[in-house]
Amino acid sequence: MSTAPIGLTNQLAAAGTLAGNPAYTQAERMQKEHFDRVAELYEAHYSDPCSLSYRRRFIYEPMFAGLDLAGKRVLDAMCGSGQTSEYLLSRGALMTGLDISPEVMEAYRRRWPGSHTICRSALDTGLPSDSFDCVSVVGGLHHMHPFLNEAVRELHRVLKPGGYLCFMEPHSGSLPDIVRRVWYKHDHLFSDNEAAVDLAAAEREFSSHFTFNRVKYQGSLGFLLVLNSMIFRIPLRLKPLYTPLLLALESLISKLQGKKLSCFVVAQWQKK
User: Are the C-beta atoms of residues 252 and 203 closer than 8 Å to each other?
Assistant: First the structure.
């Protein structure tokens, strides 16, 4: 049964009627087609127990550190089939999933039938302003190139004053990003409009919109070979054999990592 206010429920229903024929930009259409194409493979590799263990320990816990989400309205933006929503629901959050891909949104509905869903762009959510206590994005903003700032402005709009934008993204200015930029161009599992997030530029752009509460750079062998087994074409049956060792190494390495050697950044911003 729905736990959202009637106004939000009506907004979601209205937005849902637009999803069949949205005015997508070329970049959005590209991303939608890309995720519809890889949805089944993505689900297998990013929702297995090994990947979920990595997510919880190295992404979700630092992303949402210090936040009481019980009973709070949270938007899982660019949610895929809802890996992040699983963690947030365990924290007692009231979830809405947002994604541009009908294929993955159908998977989200099957997986979390008690949550709201909206198949629409993060650039134009159709949601009311000041309606969410928290917005989470895990690996979605770097798919918004060249419209990153527009996406952040839309997420800022739907946040309540004092609400939190929590995200994890591959970031520019690191050695892994140099490799990533070459790989993006030659691997069909990436979309042509993917680009690492320039966090320093984003902070300059939104310094009047957000307080930057938390930034943590991390991601090494566990990120590459456990969470991103799809990209490295690692058979799922092999992951349980090496995951415990790599997670232990990741925990040690993360204490020493800085921006230059890390694969991703976790950030927690608060709306002013």
Answer: no
Q: Is 9 within the bounds of a domain? A: no
Q: What is the dihedral of CA 173, 174, 180, 181, to 10 degrees?
A: 30
- Asked if 25 contacts 147 with a C-beta cutoff of 8 angstroms, the reply is yes
Rounded to the nearest 5 percent, the helix, strand and coil shares of the chain are: 45, 20, 35
Q: Which residues contact 125 (CB under 8 A, 6 or more apart)?
A: 15, 75, 77, 98, 118, 154, 158
Answer for the pair 96, 114: CB distance below 8 angstroms, yes or no.
no
Q: Tell me the residue range of the domain where 187 lies.
A: 26-94+129-271
User: Crossing angle for the helix pair 102-111 and 26-46, nearest 10 degrees?
Assistant: 40
Q: For 256-272, how does the pLDDT look when each residue is reduced to its tens digit (9 = 90+)? A: 888 999 999 999 999 99
CB 107 within 8 A of CB 114: no
DSSP state of 144: S
- Token match 């994005």: residue? 137
- The CA distance from 137 to 188, in Å, is 23
Q: How many residues does the chain have?
A: 272
Q: Where are the beta strands (DSSP E) in the chain?
A: 73-77, 94-99, 116-119, 132-138, 159-169, 210-218, 264-271
Q: How many domains does the chain have?
A: 1
At 61-87, the pLDDT tens digits run 999 999 999 999 999 999 988 999 999
CATH of the domain at 183: 3.40.50.150
| Whether pTM exceeds 0.70 | yes
**Number of Cβ within a 10 Å radius of residue 186:** 7
